[in-house]
């Protein structure tokens, strides 16, 4: 065998076992060949090949589904802020407000690791978003509006976009 002749083990040694060829230096005596000299595959070999193909196909599909699910997840605290503001506009129409087009942002995060707090302001709006720095955070949102019709709103926004109102007070 070539690898024994050269005194090394490596790709050639591996090839001797994976791709034996009749009539070559890589020929392996325990492998069966058909009349044409090609490698003969037994039924069990075909079953293994089919199982490998099915396994890779299934893994690819599941990976695609996981990628699609993560694409629907919130990617930023700004998304949580926007969902909370839209929730206010849709569920408290008596306020007759419109969402600001641009926000100023200030990072209120203390020197502690593991969480973050951002404050967004625009016009009479003030929105504070706090969250843990984890794969799928739940954003705690505190919102106030100081205008003709003021309000205070407290709620959460999950990483899948579900908004939950925990407190609402109008007329502040």
What report would you give on this structure?
With 172 residues, the chain is of the alpha+beta class. It has 2 domains: 2-71, no CATH class; 77-170. Helix content is 33%, strand content 24%. It has 4 helices and 6 strands; from the N terminus they run ααααββββββ. It has helices at 2-6, 11-18, 43-71, 77-91, and strands spanning 104-107, 115-122, 125-132, 139-145, 151-157, 163-170. Strands 1-2-3-4-5-6 form a 6-stranded antiparallel β-sheet. The longest helix has 29 residues, at 43-71. It is elongated and about 90 Å long. 12% of the residues are buried. Residues 1-16 and 66-70 have low confidence and may be disordered.
Main attributes of the structure:
six-stranded antiparallel beta sheet, 2 domains, elongated, alpha+beta
Short description:
This protein is an alpha+beta fold and 172 residues long.
Give the topology, please.
Layout: H1 2-6, H2 11-18, H3 43-71, H4 77-91, E1 104-107, E2 115-122, E3 125-132, E4 139-145, E5 151-157, E6 163-170
Antiparallel strand pairs: 1-2, 2-3, 3-4, 4-5, 5-6
């Amino acid at each position: 065998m070539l690898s024994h002749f050269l005194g090394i083990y490596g790709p050639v040694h591996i090839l001797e076992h994976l791709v034996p060829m009749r009539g070559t230096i890589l020929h392996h005596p325990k492998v069966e060949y058909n009349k044409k000299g090609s490698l003969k595959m037994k039924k069990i070999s075909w079953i293994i090949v089919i199982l490998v193909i099915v396994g890779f196909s299934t893994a690819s599909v599941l990976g695609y589904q996981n990628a699609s699910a993560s694409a629907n997840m919130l990617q930023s605290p700004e998304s949580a802020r926007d969902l909370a503001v839209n929730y206010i506009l849709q569920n408290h129409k008596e306020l007759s407000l419109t969402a600001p087009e641009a926000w100023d942002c200030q990072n209120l995060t203390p020197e502690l690791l593991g969480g973050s707090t951002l404050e967004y302001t625009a016009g009479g709006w003030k929105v504070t978003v706090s969250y843990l720095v984890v794969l799928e955070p739940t954003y705690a949102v505190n919102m106030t509006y100081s205008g003709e019709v003021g309000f205070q709103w407290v709620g959460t926004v999950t990483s899948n976009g579900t908004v939950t109102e925990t407190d609402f007070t109008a007329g502040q």
